[in-house]
Specification:
The complex is a heterotrimer of chains A (591), B (529) and C (471). With 591 residues, chain A is an all-alpha fold. Among the domains of chain A are: 212 residues, no CATH class; 34 residues. Chain A contains 20 helices and 2 strands. In chain A, strands 1-2 form a two-stranded antiparallel ribbon. In chain A, helix 8 packs antiparallel against helix 12 and helix 14 packs antiparallel against helix 15. The longest helix of chain A is centred in the C-terminal third of the chain and has 50 residues. The termini of chain A are far apart. Helices cover 73% and strands 2% of the residues of chain B. In chain B, strand 1 and strand 2 form a beta hairpin. The longest helix of chain B has 54 residues. Chain C has 471 residues and is mainly alpha-helical. Chain C has a two-stranded antiparallel sheet. Chain C is globular, with a radius of gyration of 21 Å. Chain C starts with a helix and ends with a helix. Classes of the chains: A mainly alpha (591), B mainly alpha (529), C mainly alpha (471). At the A-B interface, helix 19 and helix 20 of A face helix 6, helix 8, helix 9 and helix 10 of B.
């Protein structure tokens, strides 16, 4: 069974690396689609076989790194989700990027991305996990920068990589602290570490996860990452990179000192609410979806904060389904509307593509949490856990979750109304086959994913009727507010409800601009100071200066030796006398 | 007066050298050949005696004035062979020229074997006095050089004699072996004064600071073969004299004052020589200044006597100093031999150059030509530089081009060697080996081994001195490297055809040989009581 | 096998002489390949400790023996040297460069291999010094027209300063122990406690120049920038390794007590170096200079890891050392290819390489990712476990670990900045009509790419080799 575990990672990785060398488009497409398909098969096999394999990757004497894969049912479930989404994204891309000359590398990078994600999902060794963790970041850089002609793409890509890597500074430190204290990097073997060390390590690791998952305060990279092709957004947001942070936190939950979970709760609460508001104010289709991701991943963090990993994973899976669907559908819709995705201009009629309309509607409903779709159950599981936890973290998360539920409903409704019900071109458009497969499949998935609640590998608390009612009220409340605004004045965006703060939320509370400016200013100042220190002080003054001083001394010495015989004799006599006097003096003194 | 048997076999090399001198005087055209053959035989005899058992002669009780051991005879052979090389490099060697050269060599051979201060100083004078004549080239410049050398030498000899006298006063003996024991109870101040004056005087031969400044001046104005002799055999004489005095005579009882004096000499030489060499534009003066620095390196192991660790291992110090001296003089000989081979025949140049010399009397026209070698050094014996010249800052920067010299204004500049490697590969290669060796870098391993020898000894006795030596070597690279670069890569006018191919090739082969088999040098310079 | 050791050193020397004499580059390629092959067979019949040794007397009076040995620490570095030498020779032959350049390269290669294999301190010193002149000549003769003279002189003076300080330290050690046999001194626990700090200080100062350790690095950017491509490759891939190898093997081995005492100073300087170099890189405007400066940061990791003194730290240092020797030469090869084609290395004049030459841009991206320590590529293991080793020491060392980790972030920042300027954006005029990457170029680069990938995915065997080494 170990074979399937290695094949699960090895196939996409090999396809990815080999794909970078493939020139012919058809071959690239085949390898692009087959690799995640095989990964899907392998992960399904692993779901039932649960292989556990390990060998030593690197031995550093006092500690060793193992290539250890632990495909528990939950890990396998996440692996299935990742593989499936990637498969659909690859299929979608075949037609989406049919005119793109750089399709080959793109498809290969997506496969590498999948392999990296699968490493994160399956790894039982923190350093091994780190490999997938950062390769994923690198792939996201490559994928976001895919459009060569888009001026903002390289910057956005670099931002995505650098912000996540900034988090990784802490992540690496945390892993190393944990490894030092526990004497091993194996997650399954990390035993008791002292409370203080665990707290330090986990806070550091949390910061890394915040970076990867684009939670507050490192959410700044995610909105600009929309510069990448839409399938890439689907991939990053749905089942891979952004979810990875939450996933890793669930794996390390046993190490957390319970009291400190309130930190996670605060991060989750701020992210859920803040991103919800930003999504409500966002000005383009993909922007709404991007901010909604931050908010939804906040729910996963919330589940972690109340120490319920299975609820987090459940939401991760359901989120993977509906978010992938939403992004893929958004790609179709933006293509149909022929716009850049701005909400002000993007309009399609429900009738122009039934498939797109229903896919979007169901996806938004799932996100908003309308039963019996998956989103409803997963959120209920999280809030239920918070409800039952009776910790400060639980209280924070619960109320923030309710608030975020209202916001989710509101921005979902706004998006739905603005896109579909403002008229638009009448001609019917057909969704290409490769793309429609994705839409159909995912629509199916989100309908059935709620079933995981009842028949899945996850252990989640039993349903709370009162809670379900409360949630439904919240969702309906959100709909009602937006609907009310819409019925009053159809010409105006319901986001006007936010009043004067609307512009601020539309730009993510200027966090990105401020952080960018601060970083640039700081970097410029620090680099200037470093250059002054290094090139001016060390190089020019100390090094070259000493050379200049030596040459100056040389000129003086040379000049001092002009003067012919008399000068020579004076020099000699004086020198000899001085030396003699010294010798006599020292001799007398020493004796 | 008790007569005692004299070991004539021990004196054989000396007899042969003296005989060579005498024969050369009568040999006419064959003088050069006679000198070379005679001195070679003398060297062979020295080696033959050195290989055999140690011999001593001229005894006063236990003490001997003449000692023929492995080291002394090896050095005697080296003196003779270096003189042979110089003779070979001399284009028109007349009878008197050869006589003086061979007489000087005889002085060197005596010096190597000398066992008391009187013999040593007499031998040193024998080595030096013929040079008064030899360094003097026709013309005013040559006369100035000769006068400078003469007065400087006499002054230093007087100093050394004064020191010897003080030591005699302190110990009642002039034999090294006697000093080694008799200085024990002497007044330390008297001993220190004697040591300082004696070593200071002897340091003149080695051109160690503060009695160094004659070297650049004289070397540049002397004919190049004689410059070769001054830079090699003559310096070896100084090194041997100091080593013998310090090792056999002073180390046991007066190690500390000797060490202090030598440390001062050594550090001053390293500093002054290296720094001044940095701005030299003329090949010979560059080599002369750097030679001052190397004198400092030679003295450095002996200077370690100033430390307790150094006094504990005087034989290692002396061996290191000698070994370095041998490597160094061979490298210098190589450099000067190569220079001699490619320098235009200076004797024929004299006539034309004297005419141009008149133009060079005022600095302005030369400066306006942008020529680097503005004549700036006014060495009228006994007169100071005129104040007008002091006001020419540019003129003071450039190095010792002889004022109104019998060389052309640009002659002797480093730039003259540009591209030598293409036009005269053999001398250029030897020159490169020598220069790179002097800087102590592989692939010229001879120099590297020299540096290793002294650093290895200093590291065990006086790390601070090792670091000073290392610092000197760093500065040294800063002027050796451009020199090597000019020869190898520079683009310049073709220089005349190389001469003295065999002599240059031989010294080159010797340098290669000691680079590959340093143990030969290290064996015979290893000395012990 | 002893013969193979000698062959590894002698073949490049002979090749240098012949290729210079006969003006044929292919002789250089053949001899470099021979040297590589000789080294490649060395692991046959190995055990722990020294695998093979030859010992010939040379000059016993100064403790000099022609004594070569190989073990798990020196072999990978020697092999790397031979590989880079071979690649440089191929590059030269392909470009039709002067055979003198090839000869000088081979001389550097021979001397460097001799340094790595030397088991005698005096021989080590001689070989160490022997690198200087040929490398100086490469920079001086074949370097960038505007800066080569200054850079070459600076390189030579700095290097000789380092090597003479180092020599003093070596000789103190020899005087203290009475032998110059490196392995023997290491086996007996180094020099006596009194001399230990002095020996280590001298040795470390010497090696720190070569490594280079901040603030003794200022020769490096000039020399690397001015040198021709092959010169930069050897400088980065081999010469810096001489410093770190010496620091770890010789300084650490001869004076373990001194190393422990001096470790905080080394570590702090290394950390400063990491940060300062990275920050300087953030504003550099020239491609090669940027890559050159990045070496200061990377070698800071090596020194920091060594300074921790832990088992993991030393292995991380060795690993990072080797990884840098693969990655940075690759970067220099690629930067050379870019500069050859664009005739400029100024970042403001570049852009759009991704569109103009996708393969070249892809490789540049790969190398940049490897250089920023992406996990799964060779650069990761050494740098990550530098952080680990520093954390392992605990206390104030954790701050250094944080600095190192942050330095890795800054490394990513400036390399992405470089990629953005070079690869992305519209095609710059300098890249119009860019020549494709030729097969020979691919052949030159691919061993490095493969090795970077291999070491990144399977670091285990190399680390196990280090574990068997004589340290």
């Amino acid at each position: 069974m170990g074979f399937f575990a290695w094949a699960l990672i090895g196939l996409p990785a090999a396809a990815g690396l080999a794909g970078l060398l493939i020139r012919r488009r058809r071959a690239a497409a085949w390898s692009a689609v087959l690799a995640p398909l095989f990964a899907l098969v392998c992960s399904i096999v692993c779901f039932f076989a649960n292989p556990f394999v390990a060998f030593t990757l690197a031995d550093f004497g006092s500690i060793r790194v193992s290539a250890a894969l632990d495909l528990s049912p939950t890990a396998s479930a996440v692996a299935i989700a990742s593989s499936l989404v990637t498969l659909l994204v690859q299929l979608y891309s075949v037609s989406y990027l049919r005119d793109d000359s750089r399709y080959g590398p793109f498809a290969a990078q997506v496969n590498l991305f999948l392999a990296a994600m699968l490493v994160v999902v399956a790894a039982d060794d923190l350093v091994f996990l780190l490999i997938g963790w950062e390769v994923m970041g690198a792939c996201s850089y490559l994928l976001i920068a895919h459009y060569a002609k888009l001026p903002s793409a390289p910057g956005s890509a670099a931002k995505a990589f650098l912000v996540t890597r900034f988090g990784d500074v802490a992540f690496v430190l945390g892993v190393m602290v944990l490894g030092t204290a526990a004497g091993t990097f194996r997650i399954s073997e990390i035993g008791d570490v002292s409370e203080g060390v665990a707290a330090a390590a986990m806070l550091l690791i949390l910061f890394g996860c915040i970076g990867k998952s684009a939670q507050f305060p490192l959410q700044i990279w995610l909105p600009p990452a929309m510069a990448g092709p839409t399938p890439v957004s689907a991939l990053i947001h749905a089942a891979t990179m952004v979810a990875a942070g939450a996933y890793v936190l669930t794996r390390l939950l046993p190490v957390w000192p319970t009291d400190l979970l309130v930190v996670v709760a605060l991060v989750a609460a701020i992210s859920m609410l803040g991103a919800g508001l930003c999504a409500f104010a966002a000005t383009d289709v993909k922007g709404v979806l991007a901010w909604s991701t931050v908010s939804q991943v906040g729910f996963m963090f919330a589940a972690v904060a109340v120490a319920d990993p299975d609820a987090a994973l459940f939401h991760l899976l359901s989120h993977a389904g509906f978010k992938a669907l939403l992004f893929l559908t958004a790609g179709v819709i933006i293509h149909q509307a022929g716009t850049d995705g701005s909400l002000a201009t993007t309009r399609v009629r429900p009738s122009s593509s039934r498939l797109a309309f229903w896919a979007m509607t169901l996806g938004l409903a799932a996100m908003a949490g309308i039963p019996p779709l998956g989103g409803f159950y997963s959120k209920e599981a999280i809030l239920g856990a918070a409800y039952e936890s009776a910790t400060p973290a639980g209280v924070i998360v619960f109320w923030a979750g309710i608030g975020a539920g209202i916001l989710t409903a509101a921005y979902s409704a706004r998006l739905w109304l603005l896109v579909f019900w403002r008229g638009g071109a009448k001609e019917r458009a057909t969704v290409p086959l490769a793309q429609s497969i994705g839409l159909w499949t995912l629509t199916g998935v989100i309908v059935v994913v709620g079933g995981l609640y009842f028949a899945g590998p996850l252990e989640v608390p039993p349903l709370h009727l009162d809670l379900m009612v409360l949630m439904l009220i919240a969702v309906l409340g959100g709909f009602a507010v937006v609907g009310d605004s819409w019925w009053r004045d159809r010409a105006r965006d319901p986001a006007r409800l936010l009043g004067r703060t609307r512009a601020a939320f539309a730009r993510g509370l200027y966090a990105e601009a401020l952080a960018g400016k601060a970083t640039r200013t700081g970097a410029r100042a620090a680099a200037g100071a470093a250059s002054a220190l290094d090139e001016h002080l060390v190089d020019q003054i100390l090094v070259e200066g000493s050379a200049r001083a030596t040459v100056a001394a040389a000129h003086r010495t040379d000049t001092g030796h002009r003067g012919g015989l008399v000068a020579y004799l004076r020099l000699s006599v004086a020198g000899t006398l001085v030396i003699t006097a010294c010798a006599i003096g020292v001799s007398l003194w020493m004796s | 007066m008790v007569s005692q048997p004299i070991d004539h076999a021990a004196l054989l090399p000396l007899y042969l050298a003296a005989a060579t001198a005498a024969v050369a005087l009568f040999a006419g055209r064959l003088a050069k050949a006679c000198t070379m053959i005679g001195l070679s035989i003398s060297a062979g005899a020295a080696i033959w005696i050195g290989v055999g058992a140690d011999r001593r002669t001229f005894a006063v009780g236990e003490w001997h004035s003449y000692i023929a051991s492995d080291a002394t005879m090896g050095l005697a052979a080296l003196f003779a062979l270096l003189t042979v090389l110089v003779a070979a490099l001399s284009a028109r060697a007349g009878a008197e020229y050869c006589f003086l050269l061979a007489a000087s060599a005889a002085g060197g051979i005596t010096l190597a074997g000398s066992g008391d201060l009187i013999t040593l100083i007499v031998a040193l004078e024998t080595l030096t006095v013929p040079l008064y004549v030899l360094v003097t080239r026709p013309g005013r410049d040559g006369a100035e050089a000769g006068v400078t050398f003469l007065i400087a030498s006499i002054a230093s000899s007087a100093t050394a004699l004064m020191g010897a006298a003080l030591l005699y006063a302190a110990s009642g003996t002039v034999h090294f072996a006697g000093l080694a024991t008799e200085l024990a109870g002497a007044h330390p101040g008297l001993v220190a004064a004697g040591v300082a004056l004696l070593l200071g005087g002897l340091a003149f031969k080695l051109a160690a600071a503060p009695l160094h400044a004659w070297a650049p001046l004289v070397l540049e104005r002397a004919p190049l073969p004689i410059a070769t002799y001054l830079a090699s055999a003559s310096k070896l004489g100084g090194a041997v004299a100091i080593t013998w005095v310090v090792y056999f005579g002073l180390a046991p009882q007066a190690g500390l004052p000797a060490g202090i004096v030598l440390a001062a000499l050594s550090v001053a030489s390293i500093a002054v020589g290296n720094v001044a060499a940095l701005v030299q534009r003329r090949t010979v003066s560059l080599l002369a200044w750097s030679g001052i620095a190397h004198a400092g390196y030679v003295l450095a192991p002996l200077a370690a006597l100033a430390t307790a660790a150094g006094r504990g291992a005087p034989d290692a110090a002396a061996s290191a100093a000698l070994a370095y001296a041998v490597f160094f003089v061979l490298l210098e000989a190589g450099a000067f031999a190569a220079l001699t081979a490619v320098r235009p025949d200076t004797e024929t140049e004299t006539a034309t150059a004297t005419a141009t010399a008149e133009k060079g009397r005022t600095p302005e026209p030369l400066l306006s030509r942008g020529d680097l070698s503005a004549p700036d050094l006014k060495v009228n014996a006994g007169t100071l530089r005129s104040s007008t010249e002091l006001s020419h800052p540019r003129a003071t920067i450039e190095s010792g081009g002889p004022q109104g010299s019998d060389l052309k204004a640009s002659a002797g500049n480093i730039t003259e060697l540009a591209g030598l490697f293409r036009t005269a590969p053999l001398p250029a290669t030897v020159f490169l080996i020598a220069v790179v060796g002097l800087s102590g870098l592989p692939p010229a391993l001879a120099g590297t081994f020299a540096k290793i020898v002294i650093l290895e000894f200093l590291a065990s006795s006086a790390v601070w001195l090792a670091i000073i030596v290392a610092a000197g070597a760093i500065v040294g690279l800063a002027y050796y490297l451009p020199l090597a670069r000019t020869v190898l890569l520079g683009r310049g006018t073709p220089t005349p055809k190389a001469r003295f191919t065999i002599a240059v090739a031989v010294i080159g082969l010797v340098l290669l040989a000691i680079g590959l088999a340093p143990q030969t040098v290290l064996e015979f310079t290893r000395i012990s009581q | 096998m002893g013969l193979m050791l000698i062959a590894a050193v002698a073949l490049p020397l002979v090749g240098a002489a012949l290729s210079w004499w006969l003006r044929r580059n292919w002789i250089g390629v053949a001899s470099a390949a021979g040297s590589f092959a000789a080294l490649a067979v060395l692991p046959l019949g190995r055990g722990d400790g020294w695998w093979h040794a030859v010992d010939l007397a040379w000059a016993p009076s100064i403790h000099l023996d022609f004594s070569l040995s190989v073990d798990g620490v020196s072999w990978p570095l020697a092999l790397l040297t031979a590989l880079l030498g071979l690649l440089c020779c191929v590059h030269n032959a392909h470009k039709g460069a002067s055979s003198t350049l090839t000869a000088l390269l081979l001389a550097v290669q021979a001397a460097s291999i001799a340094v790595f294999l030397s088991d005698n301190l005096i021989l080590f010193f001689i070989a160490f010094e022997a690198v200087l002149l040929p490398m100086w000549a490469i920079v001086y003769r074949y370097g960038d027209e505007a800066t080569r003279r200054h850079a070459a002189a600076k390189f030579a003076l700095f290097t000789v300063t380092g090597s003479l300080l180092m020599a003093t330290g070596l000789f103190v050690a020899v005087a203290d122990t009475g032998t110059a046999d490196l392995g023997e001194i290491i086996a007996t626990g180094g020099v006596s406690a009194d001399a230990s700090l002095l020996v280590f200080t001298l040795l470390a100062a010497g090696f720190a120049v070569k490594a280079p350790l901040w603030p003794l690095h200022s020769w490096l950017p000039d020399a690397h920038t001015a040198a021709p491509t092959v010169g930069s490759v050897l400088l980065a891939g081999v010469l810096l390794k001489l410093g770190t190898y010496g620091l770890i093997r010789v300084a650490g081995g001869l004076a373990p007590h001194g190393a422990a005492d001096a470790a905080p100073v080394l570590a702090i300087l290394a950390a400063i170096g990491i940060i300062v170099a990275s920050l300087v890189c953030l504003r550099l405007g020239e491609l090669k200079r940027l890559i050159a400066y990045s070496s200061v940061g990377h070698m800071g990791f090596v020194v920091l890891a060594f300074a921790t003194g832990t088992e993991a730290g030393v292995r991380a240092a060795l690993f990072a050392n080797l990884a840098h020797g693969l990655v940075t030469p690759l970067l220099f090869f690629l930067a050379g290819a870019v500069k050859d084609r664009a005739h400029t290395g100024r970042l403001v004049d570049l852009g759009g390489l991704r569109l103009a030459a996708p393969a070249l841009a892809g490789l540049l991206g790969f190398a940049a990712f490897a250089s920023l320590g992406l996990p799964g590529l060779a650069g990761f293991w050494g740098e990550a476990f530098t952080v680990y080793a520093a954390v392992e020491r605990g206390g104030a060392w954790i701050a250094l670990a944080a600095i190192a980790a942050f330095g890795a972030f800054l490394t990513a920042a400036y390399l992405l900045r470089m990629l953005r300027r070079v690869s992305h954006g519209p095609v710059a005029p300098a890249f119009e009509g860019l020549g494709a990457v030729s097969a020979i170029e691919f052949a030159t680069w691919s061993p490095l790419v493969a090795a970077v990938l291999l070491l990144g995915l399977a670091p285990g065997p190399l680390l196990d080799l280090f574990a068997t080494g004589v340290l």
